[in-house]
Amino acid sequence: MKITQMFLAFSLVGGIWILYLLIGLSVLSVAIILERLLYFRANRPKPGDFQPKLLSYLQTGKIEDAIGLAQKAAGPEARCARLALYSRHEGTDVIRQNLLNGLLTEQHRMEKRLLILGTLGNNAPFIGLLGTVLGIIKAFYDLSIAGAGGPSVVMLGIAEALVATAMGLFIAIPAVIAYNYFQRRTRQTRQQLERLAETLLLYLKSEPTSGSSGAGAKTR
Question: What are the C-alpha distances in Å from 106 to residues 19, 77, 99, 112, 153?
């Protein structure tokens, strides 16, 4: 009974604080969506520009030109290419490990803050529902205290309480759409980076390592 009274006292505060919480979460959600949109726009892979030029240089043995292209370009493809090209004399295993580290780093950058966005999409409706339940409890309690006004008093309280549920859905729907979109962009970019990594390994595995070039110098 004491627990029930404590929960009733908490419920009588109403759902107004839930609304303030939801407003803050909506601002956070919009900020993350905008930041991620700007990130993916700035780091969008350009398969029609960077990769063909890079592969053309590698096919013709113009490694220095390939390095210069990777240094001038921006984005995840260029960053992974630089990791491979800078370690081209250290052996296939080192190149492969550097490319793997680069892929993991780029994936971490692309998935940054997406966990928050997914959490908001999954839980914002429940937060809004909590505000609605608290508002309904307060509306019925106010009716019992007032004793007059009839159903209109309850209807007004319920209408105000349902605002919290609507607010929760208003946050969740764009958050879920944006989360799915960014996850799809992340998968597409990772697939492109994996194809680029395989190609770089294919062309760079024949490069002499620093140890073998040193041994060749001694034999001379």
Answer: 37, 9, 10, 10, 56
Q: What is the pLDDT of residues 72-120, one digit of tens each?
A: 888 888 888 888 888 888 888 888 898 999 999 999 999 999 999 999 9
Residue 212 in any domain: the answer is no
- In sequence order, what are the residues at sequence separation of 6 or more whose Cβ sits closer than 8 angstroms to the Cβ of residue 183? 114
Domains contained in the chain, number = 1
Q: Decide if 13 is inside a domain.
A: yes
What is the three-state SS of the chain?
Answer: CHHHHHHHHHHCCCCHHHHHHHHHHHHHHHHHHHHHHHHHHHCCCCCCCHHHHHHHHHHCCCHHHHHHHHHHCCCHHHHHHHHHHHCCCCCHHHHHHHHHHHHHHHHHHHCCCHHHHHHHHHHHHHHHHHHHHHHHHHHHHHHHHHCCCCHHHHHHHHHHHHHHHHHHHHHHHHHHHHHHHHHHHHHHHHHHHHHHHHHHHHHHCCCCCHHHHHHHHHHC
* Type of residue numbered 158: I
**Domain contains 35:** yes
| % of the chain surpassing 70 pLDDT | 80
Full domain range(s) for residue 114: 8-206
In a domain, 114, yes or no: yes
Taking the model in full, what pTM does it have?
Answer: 0.79
